[in-house]
Amino acid sequence: MSDEPRTMTLAIIKPDAFGSGKAGAVLSTLEDAGFRIRGSRVVHLSDAAAGAFYAVHHERPFFGSLVEFMTSGPCMPLALEHERAVPYLREVIGATDPAEAEPGTVRALYAESKERNAIHASDSDENARVELGFFFGNVDLIAGR
Ligand code: GDP
Q: What is the sign, positive or negative, of the torsion defined by CA atoms of 129, 135, 138, 142?
């Protein structure tokens, strides 16, 4: 066992992968990488919720399209635990654009395009804390510990 602390991060299996029946395959990839699933839900985001979640991108030209995509069908938020969970999950999902993602990463395997890219992952410990709070209450996160 490593001495690295186990920490939690937030992933979302996005509407493209969830809608095409790839949720199980994505979960298998994440579990095979060593993540423990500590929380999961299926939600259909409203415009307001998707806009709030991606508020940091509000000024970007793709914001409207991103909100439209993220509200186009159900998605699956996940609370995932691992050592150095945030940077490790970023490695496991691969680059934003699947054309640039390393072979074997979730996005290389399951993303359709730079926007419809199968999965979200928090990009810092602080954002992970905020994003976990967005979808999961304390009860979900302490269950099973
Ligand atoms: P991530 O952290 O790898 O998810 O990437 P970002 O935080 O930069 O972007 C958030 C999400 O917006 C991405 O996962 C994509 O779904 C989408 N996105 C990012 N860049 C682009 C872009 O240039 N065009 C479009 N259409 N969508 C983008």
A: negative
